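Before the break, one more example. Copy the sequence into your notebook; we will annotate it together after we see the structure.
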Amino acid sequence: MPYKKIINQYLTKHGFEAFVPKAVLFDMDGVLYNSMPNHAVAWQESMKQFGIQMTVHDAYATEGARGIDTIRNMVKAQKGIDISLEEAQKMYDVKTHIFHNMPVAEIFDGVVPLMQKIQQLGMKIGVVTGSGQRPLIKRLLDDFHEFIDESRIVTAYDVDCGKPAPDPYLMGLRKCGNLQPWQGIVIENAPLGVHAGVAAGCFTIAVNSGPLSDDVLLNEGAHVIFHRMTELVQVFEDIVKSSL
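Here is what the structure looks like once it is written out:
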């Protein structure tokens, strides 16, 4: 694939002079972990308790947003009422409880080799997630302690506006050394996350690990799309070196 052409189109669109990646910002669910099937079940079962219908498609389409925002939007759409952040948090706590009683999701094949390659290229690694659940953050630190530390993790509690707003990825750039958008690469799997990465001005790679069509991610502005992390590992260095 002519990555140099794609990168030039990215630079032209944003009015940047150069693409000099110094950090890679990963989403968590559906990118690092094959956890979205569990999240989809937990969303459906928890929301049913509150009279809210949520489908598997809804779970994937809203993935990456702050949980409390997803809940407030769905309650507004289905019941026509505005609920407080506190009410939404109580509902989200039920979803969290169900999720943490499900089998532990495995790390996707290719994630660790990709992080090794990023590290070898002298780049930093950050994680930008819409979650704020402490057990998930602890697992991140346990599983990827060779590559990341807590100072480069952005959670739901680090920003007022979650994905699809650019704020989480702008915060990720800040936490990786006050970088500019043209110095960051975003790796996402969800439409809201892709939108956020693109809105932040970052070169955004989609890994479509779920049931949504590629068009959904491309329509949000994904610059390149893969279906498995192992595919990205094989060409990641080509993408980075195409910018030189």
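The beta strands are 23-26, 124-128, 153-154, 184-188, 203-207, 224-226. The two ends are 16 Å apart (CA to CA). Try to locate both features in your own notes.
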